[in-house]
Fold this protein.
Amino acid sequence: MGLLSYLRGDDVLAGKSETRSLPRPDNELPLAGLPTVWSGPTCWKLAPVEALAIADGWAAVRVLSDAVSSLPLHVYRKTEQGRERVTSGKLVDLLERPSPGCTEADLTSTLMSHLAVWGSAYIGKYRQAGEVNQLGLIHPDRIRPQLEDGRLRFRYTPATGGQQLLTEADVVHVKGLSVDGLNGLSAVSQAARVLGLSDSLVKHAMSFFESTTTRPAGVLRLGDPESYPGDDARQRTIEGLRNEFKPHGLLVVTGDMSYENVAHRMDDSQFVEQRRLACQEICRVFRVPSHMLNAGSGGDSLTYSTVEQQSLDFVRYSLTPWLRRIEVAISNDRDLAFQQQFARFEIDALLRPDSAGRAAFYTAALDPITGWMDRNEVRRLEDLPPEEQSRDRSPEMVAPPMVAVPTNGGTTNE
């Protein structure tokens, strides 16, 4: 049975009974032959999945995926008054438990990592009795979108067997930045030079400290044996120099005494600065604040206010565009969202200020004259149970007492 028939549940519709879960993931053996290659003085070959083997790339992708997985994905319904929360239904159940062994956090985290690395994510809609009952991610290397006769199709290549042609009834496509409106651009492919530079610097550091290297740190040339001290003093001098230049060692050549430096010290080549710059370039590619990867320059003076503002900018300009793409893709799918339903991430937890800031905000919101909230609304935002009898904030109940004003004669008006 092909994947298309499997997704649609044709065997169930034909009268067969079956208890089914998602099949084994097809991303165990990604498609080969899709590296990023270009010509030039240095030719890099970097497949998208290989970016996760680079420490800076892994850290940047993890920042994005962990941030998305920490946000709850809720379902709402549009109403005349605005919106209302939906707490039960097919879409709510699918998002809370997409498939056996997979939680909402697992789904959104993997979805974000696919978008960050491959530029596209594909959610497979697994059916039983014609209804979608499970959601699972398809590896981006195994599926390609294409237009045929004005309709969107997905050519899927499983681990075994021939290719399958899927439709929008089988797949939800979430794509990132695109130049053709169909295929999302991979950040790894577009910035392979930057990732390759970071990888090369790490390899250079490993080779520098590798004790088996055959390249000496310097050459000590000795002149006429009668012109330098005895054997013991000479040997101590040579051994001292060799210990100083470990692990590269020192090459000793007899002849006229002179010394030539061969290896450069790491600080002379500004290795730390190069690593920091490479990490900052990767942060720029994935639009992640450099302080989240500990890649700030040595001269940066980060204070609480600057870190807080950078964190807010990260939510607004890095996470929000990705979250919006995921929300729209799920909300526009007719098999998942219906009856004016839509999905939305709750980012208030990331935008929430500290305790002092929230207290000042709630104080203004509960003002009896100019406020716009009651105590139960505040408690709900703080994940607290509502009060049985909410205190009334009407002006009649909380207005200050009237003070008598003395007249010109010194008496007061009662």
Q: What stands out?
A: The CA atoms of residues 120 and 135 lie 16 Å apart.
